[in-house]
C-alpha cells in the first residue's frame, strides 16, 4: 500500500513540474504573441493527441449531458485564458498561486451544488484561503489590479470546471470531457482573434488579440508547450489512480514552488513578503481542504 502511495506522490511531483514548465513555455511565448494565441496552440495539440487516443480505443459512455459538457468546456477555457494572460503580466509563481485557489472555490461549489460535506477543518481551510487571496492581491481596501481579479476568476473558472466534472464522469469517458474543453479552447481563441483583428480595446487585451505568425524559435516553445501539458495530464491521471485524492491534491501544491523557481530563472522578481505570506496561507488552505477528503 505504501508503495502505491509513493508512486502516486512521485507521479504528481512529475506532473507538477511539467505544469510549471508548461507555464514557463507560455511565458516565453507571450513575448511574441498574445495570450489568446498561446491558449490556441496549447489546446490544438491536445485535440490532436486525444483524437488519436479515441481512434485507437473508441469512447465507451452513456452521454446525455451535452449542455453540462459544453459548460465544463467553456469554464475551463475561460480559466485557462485568464491564467495565461496573468502569466504574461505577473511573476509565474503568483499566476500559478491564483490558479491553485481553484481548490478553495471547488470545495465551496461542491458544498452548494453537490451537497458534499466540508467539515470544520474544510471551512477553516476555506477561510484561510480567502485571507491568503487578500495577501497575494495586496488588497488595501481600495481596488484590485486587472491581474488580481483575472487571477481570482481563473480560480473560479477552474473550480466550476472541476465541479462539473464530478457530475460528468458518470456519463462520459474522461477523454470526451477533456476533448470538450480542448475543442472549445481551440475554437474560442480563433473567434476571439478574428474579432481582435477588427476591434481593438486595450482594456480587453486579456481576451482579444490578433494572430501572429510564429517564428522558428516560437515553434520550439509551442511544441514544448504541447508536450509538457500532455505529459502533465498523463502523470496527474496516473497519480490519482495510485493514491487518495487528498494526498495527491496536497502534493499538487508543489507546482507553486516549481513555478516560483522557474519564474526567477526567467527573470521574475522575488515575491514581496506579503505575497509570500499569502502563498503560504493558500497552500495551507489547500492542505486543509484536501485532507478533509480523506
From TrEMBL:
<feature type="transmembrane region" description="Helical">
    <location>
        <begin position="120"/>
        <end position="137"/>
    </location>
</feature>
<feature type="transmembrane region" description="Helical">
    <location>
        <begin position="36"/>
        <end position="54"/>
    </location>
</feature>
<dbReference type="InterPro" id="IPR037185">
    <property type="entry name" value="EmrE-like"/>
</dbReference>
<feature type="transmembrane region" description="Helical">
    <location>
        <begin position="219"/>
        <end position="235"/>
    </location>
</feature>
<feature type="transmembrane region" description="Helical">
    <location>
        <begin position="97"/>
        <end position="113"/>
    </location>
</feature>
<feature type="transmembrane region" description="Helical">
    <location>
        <begin position="177"/>
        <end position="199"/>
    </location>
</feature>
<dbReference type="Pfam" id="PF00892">
    <property type="entry name" value="EamA"/>
</dbReference>
<feature type="domain" description="EamA">
    <location>
        <begin position="7"/>
        <end position="137"/>
    </location>
</feature>
<feature type="transmembrane region" description="Helical">
    <location>
        <begin position="66"/>
        <end position="85"/>
    </location>
</feature>
<feature type="domain" description="EamA">
    <location>
        <begin position="149"/>
        <end position="290"/>
    </location>
</feature>
<keyword id="KW-0812">Transmembrane</keyword>
<keyword id="KW-1133">Transmembrane helix</keyword>
<feature type="transmembrane region" description="Helical">
    <location>
        <begin position="272"/>
        <end position="290"/>
    </location>
</feature>
<protein>
    <submittedName>
        <fullName>EamA family transporter</fullName>
    </submittedName>
</protein>
<feature type="transmembrane region" description="Helical">
    <location>
        <begin position="149"/>
        <end position="165"/>
    </location>
</feature>
<feature type="transmembrane region" description="Helical">
    <location>
        <begin position="247"/>
        <end position="266"/>
    </location>
</feature>
<keyword id="KW-0472">Membrane</keyword>
<dbReference type="InterPro" id="IPR000620">
    <property type="entry name" value="EamA_dom"/>
</dbReference>
<dbReference type="GO" id="GO:0016020">
    <property type="term" value="C:membrane"/>
</dbReference>
Amino acid at each position: 500500500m505504501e508503495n502505491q502511495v509513493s508512486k502516486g506522490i512521485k507521479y504528481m511531483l512529475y506532473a507538477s513540474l511539467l505544469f510549471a514548465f508548461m507555464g514557463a513555455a507560455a511565458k516565453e511565448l507571450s513575448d511574441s504573441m498574445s495570450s489568446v494565441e498561446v491558449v490556441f496552440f496549447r489546446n490544438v495539440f491536445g485535440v490532436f493527441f486525444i483524437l488519436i487516443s479515441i481512434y485507437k480505443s473508441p469512447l465507451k459512455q452513456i452521454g446525455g449531458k451535452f449542455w453540462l459538457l459544453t459548460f465544463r468546456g467553456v469554464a475551463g477555457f475561460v480559466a485557462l485564458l485568464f491564467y495565461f494572460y496573468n502569466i504574461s503580466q505577473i511573476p509565474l509563481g503568483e499566476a500559478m498561486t491564483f490558479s491553485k485557489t481553484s481548490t478553495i472555490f471547488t470545495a465551496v461549489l461542491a458544498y452548494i451544488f453537490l451537497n458534499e460535506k466540508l467539515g470544520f477543518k474544510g471551512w477553516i481551510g476555506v477561510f484561510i484561503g480567502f485571507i491568503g487571496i487578500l495577501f497575494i492581491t495586496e488588497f488595501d481596501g481600495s481596488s484590485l489590479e486587472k491581474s488580481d481579479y483575472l487571477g481570482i476568476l481563473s480560480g473560479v473558472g477552474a473550480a466550476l470546471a472541476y465541479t462539473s466534472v464530478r457530475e460528468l464522469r458518470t456519463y462520459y469517458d474522461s477523454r470526451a470531457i477533456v476533448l470538450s474543453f480542448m475543442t472549445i479552447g481551440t475554437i474560442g481563441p480563433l473567434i476571439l482573434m478574428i474579432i481582435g483583428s477588427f476591434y481593438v480595446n486595450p482594456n480587453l487585451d486579456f481576451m482579444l488579440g490578433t494572430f501572429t505568425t510564429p517564428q522558428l524559435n516560437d515553434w520550439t516553445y509551442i511544441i514544448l508547450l504541447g508536450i509538457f501539458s500532455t505529459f502533465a495530464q498523463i502523470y496527474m491521471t496516473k497519480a490519482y489512480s495510485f493514491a487518495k485524492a487528498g494526498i495527491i491534491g496536497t502534493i499538487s501544491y508543489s507546482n507553486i514552488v516549481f513555478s516560483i523557481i522557474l519564474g526567477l530563472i526567467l527573470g521574475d522578481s522575488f515575491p514581496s513578503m506579503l505575497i509570500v505570506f499569502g502563498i503560504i496561507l493558500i497552500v495551507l488552505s489547500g492542505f486543509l481542504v484536501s485532507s478533509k477528503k480523506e
